[in-house]
Amino acid sequence: MSKLIPASLGALGAGGLGVGGLMVLKPWQSESVVTFKDKYSQALLDDKVDATIWTKKYEELKKTTPNHPKLVEAFEKTKAPADEARAKELLKEGCLAIYSLPVENSKHFSDFKSFCSKTNADVSENKDWISEAVSNNKNKWDTALTSLKSHDKGELDRELAKLKAGIQNNSETFPEDKKTLLKGWCDSAKSSIFEGRDSVVFKNQESFCKVPTA
Prior knowledge:
47% helix; mainly alpha; 2 domains
């Protein structure tokens, strides 16, 4: 005669409970791990398509000691011109290894950001960034702040929303400290890891950090 399994256990399966009725997770039931490749899929560098960005990352590698062993090896190779080709190979190998690592609490996040990922600036097609000094009177930073002040469509990054609230009493010119805040935000946005053209930071960057088109 067959043995009946209570309905309360049926969904778990006969092996789902351990001693005392406690649930026992099987290997395939364990919590999934989010890797760099998962979280930043749009920022990963392609071996061939992103040749220009790889060159920039290699130049950056020459200046800074990384954490990942493979990148440390690449860094050491950059010191000898004869080893440049191998150093570039090691850079790509190191990044490929990092892509598969868990992103949470990773000691290799700085490596990923500095040497292995696209930034918002890398992906932006229009490179006409506002470059005027914030101390100049009535310049393109004023134009950008005027645009921010009247912005009413689409989401704003939290820092920009706070800045917008603080300039509502200004007219067409803005104090230097407000321009400095916007410039600082733009500099940070440009160097941030690219998370897609639809990300709030990328869209705000395109709207408030570029020279306005005529």
